[in-house]
Amino acid sequence: MTKRVLLALLMLCSVWVSVSADTLPAEAGARADQALTVKTFQFKHKDADRAAAVIKPLMSSDGSLSIQPSTNSMVITDRAENLKSIAAALDKFDTPPQAFKLSVRLVSASRATAPARTPEALKDVSTKLTILPFNNFEVLGSAVLEGKEGEPGLLELETGYRADFKWGDYDAASDSVQIGDLKLSRLQGDQLTQLLKTTMNLKVGQTVVFGAGKPQGARALLLILAVKR
Amino acid sequence: MTCDKFRAQFVPGSADAAMLEHIRSCDVCLNFAVERDDDMLFRALGGDDMVPPGGIDAFVGDVMREVHLRGTENTVSGPAGSWTRRLAVAAALATVVAGSTFVYEHRTAPAIGVAVTHHQFRSAAYSRPVIQSYDSQKATIVEVPSEGEDVTVVMVFDDSLPADL
To answer: A7-39: b or e for each residue (b if 16 or more CB lie within 10 Å)?
Structure first.
């Protein structure tokens, strides 16, 4: 009985050894793939320093990068497999400036005891407006702006509100455009008062309801934004 | 008992049944009592003494009989099942060895495939926050999750904003 058990164990050991021997070449191949490789990328249309944000999510913990502003290039050290993904992402990133359209609606929101009022012009977002702590909405103005990546954008409304910003980079991975340094101001008399300053990422085709107000405040300003090609 | 009477009569360490009964139903007085004596919470939770059905002696007897029976089972079944037990141990050992061999092989071979799949997933699921930055020291940004929806809502509550927006 003991001999049979020992024989079975010996056979299992031999199977183990043969399987381990088979896996060694695959392991060696994987190890070669883990080796760090250096590659230089030069940009034609975009700034190299802006590319860092695009590729950082794709880099491994062992990867590193350095930017050379004089040649507008970037040197990346990472595993060969990661460099393939990084090269593909940078190829999509370094494209000529793309044109977009930004639809803007400025809305005054308030909480009142009067019956709830949502204008017809906000019908497309009326369901989402119900989650906000306001029940009265008034459109202060709207416009559609066109621009390309890197260009300045300006919106001026008759109600005295003004928004200026910079069209940021388009990020292919998230299919979004950056609206950089968006400053919302209001003209009171001769004085232009800045209300807020923010940088936003707007997904192409998606509507964003951006509200700003004081905590527990009875009023807020809403910017309803949508970027399209 | 009224709240006023409770507060007038309360002394730390009190185990008076009427007082304990009162703080079981009055949160305000419970807080009042706990602030002065932490143990009042546990005294209030205690309630009636817990006695098992049939009394403590019957309960202890049941437990001891169970312990005795288990001991007897172990003594009797030991020598009779020895060769079957050894066989079971050998079979378990063989299963563990074979299983670990399979797992080892599975983890080593498709390493490249796993890495590629991971990047594809990360690339597809990658998204940037709507608000990348907001200039204020006193703001709270609330972004309502909207996966796959056409409309996203983001609200900034900022103390530095004027009230008459």
So the answer is: eeeeebeeeeeeeeeebeeeeeebeeeeeeeee
Q: Which amino acid is at A103?
A: S
Closest CA to A221 of A104, A111, A109, A105: A109
Residues 71-90 of B with CB under 8 A from A: 83, 86, 90
DSSP state of A120: G
Q: pLDDT of A197-211, one tens digit each?
A: 999 999 999 999 999
Judged by a CB distance cut-off of 8 A, whether residue B98 touches chain A is yes
Q: Which of A57, A199, A212 sits opposite B161 (nearest CB)?
A: A212
On whether the CB atoms of residues A143 and A170 are closer than 8 A, the answer is no
Bridge partners (DSSP) of residue A163 are A155, A184
Tokens coding B63: 């437990």
pLDDT tens column, A37-74: 999 999 998 888 888 888 888 899 889 999 998 999 99
Angstrom distance (rounded) from CA A167 to CA A199: 10
